[in-house]
Design brief:
4 strands, two-stranded antiparallel ribbon, Arc Repressor Mutant, subunit A, 4 domains, mainly alpha, Four Helix Bundle (Hemerythrin (Met), subunit A)
Amino acid sequence: MTEQPVAPIGFGLDELALQRAIDRARARGVESVSSDEVVDVFGDLDPTPELVEAVRATLLARGIALDEDDTDLIDVDEIVIVAHDPLLADLDDDDLVERRLRARFRPSTRETMKLNAPTPGSSDSTRMYLREIGRVALLTGPEEVVLAKQIERGTAASERLADLAASGELDALDTDERRLLTRYARKGEDAKAELTQANLRLVVSIAKRYAGRGMPLLDLVQEGNFGLMRAVEKFDWTKGFKFSTYATWWIRQSISRAIADQARTIRIPVHMVEAINRMHRIQREMAQQLEREPTVEELAAKVDLPVERVREMLRISQDPLSLDQPYGDEGDAAYGDFIEDKGAEAPADVAARTMLHAAVEEALGELNEREQALVRMRFGLDDGQPRTLEDVGREFGVTRERVRQIETKTLAKLRHEQFSQKLHAYLEGE
């Protein structure tokens, strides 16, 4: 049965990347794709809820599900289950969830996590950071919604206060209303912190997948945290996403962009990085299956790209190498020492020319000053500019014919075996 082309998804998304993800899923005999496989659909675009929904809807229209299970990213053994308290039975659902959240995120915990954030090069701080984020329990769906509502209400309150301050009407605002808006704004910021902290382990889990691509793990975690904070800002609970699913898009994109921008001396566009990573992944799989490195043609057929395109991607993916980088175990030589200088003259030629110059000078030393000057001017031995008979004649104040006579006599003297014997060897070498 012939596959129909993917319906246009718009928004500037990469439809070909989505089609490739669908084709790979069907080739494996499955009817679902992971978010890992379609993350490059976004390219340089931010994965807003509308774009994520567009991708999911397009996949569903083709009979392909978007696998949003993130249990492999999180250590489920560390989940803290809050016991049901019968004293809270008469509270509504949101109040019950909020009470549990309040018990889970105490100020002391938040302050401890801030103090123990990882610092590059400090393994102790790294272990402490991982230990602290492991103490924060994961959120349930209802808990995420409560926090999202608080963030939404807090954002609206903050904007309201900012507008009143800009218009000069803040002082005239009723005290109770001002206090209420301030409380909403503060609770919104606290909710952002709680939603962020509950998903820090998700960042570490995702960052581990990008290790070995030119950036230290701590830097990857830091970049992933930036993406997580952006996801907290953009999360729309009305779309029906689990927050961890939505945040995964932002975290991956933030890390991918950081690798593209920082990991290499020469920046590679994000969409190209994803394509190169996929090509290298397939290349490793083929090497294991074939028990040898695949040829460019075999690799191109597997990734479904033209051979020239694969060659270009292989060339682009090569890591730049510093010429000052030490070579060998001793470290007493650099790579630059072994690079041939195409414009440099061979040492043997330099030595031969030096010896020839010395031999010529020795031969000229047997002439008188006038003869030496004439030969040097006529053949340009000093400045590389030969002079005509007329030029030399004007210099010496004699006729052209007289210059020719002196030149003939001088060259005959130099051809004598007494002077020319050493010069013959250089003529024979040529």
